[in-house]
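Incident log entry.

Two folding requests arrived from the same account within the same minute. Monitoring flagged them as a possible duplicate submission, but the sequences differ. Recording both here for audit purposes.

Request one:
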Amino acid sequence: MGWTAWEIPGWHDDQKLRDFYKNAFHPELINDIDMFKASATRDTDHARRLRASLEYLLEQRPASVKAWSSLTRYPFESEDELYRYLGEVYEFFYGDRSDMPIAP
């Protein structure tokens, strides 16, 4: 069996984390990722879990585009495209990127 979102750190413990992934990357909301930045950068347990989950995804690259689409309904063309976008989101939330990333 392949990867599932249940392997994301914090997934079991944080309904808000599960909601983030299902909503923030949904095709109708993905280009409004900036509306999630404030909650992603607060000094809360949820924000720390969100950051750790993005770091896990970027370091491990566990999700295929099929698994990601099953989770979020957003159809990335390739895993490189998926992880490039997640990297841009990470840099927008936690790094030096000032402009909001636009999904391919």
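Request two (distinct sequence, not a duplicate):
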Amino acid sequence: MSSLHRADVTGKMKAFLARKAIPRHLSDSVEAQTAEITALVFCAMRYAPTDPDKLRSWWPDFEIGLSSSCGAFWPTEKLIGETVRSLRDAKVSDGGNLDELSPDARAKAEKIISTARRWLGIPGLEAHGRKTLEYWGQS
């Protein structure tokens, strides 16, 4: 993986984490925070597209799904993997079709849609929310 890809994913992950609360066990140690960010970035890099254009289109859905899973706190590596698997299960080639999903994937997609609707009212996130709703055929 290229250093540009790593830098891109690192920047996106740091921006995501800046909006979340630091876990209590990391709050007193900058070194521990740095190590955790590095671990989360490497985990995300395992799944993230390496093509910059594909990464730009993939990241908003990933971020919305991850945010709905981790809530107000930093995610775990496990949540990153679960989010990616849920997104892969929920994908349909030409857009999201809730009727064709398994019950688990449908529930995850509905959480993503709900989060995307909330993001419409948040400056800087409204484009992500709009794009996700368009993908799922929601308005």
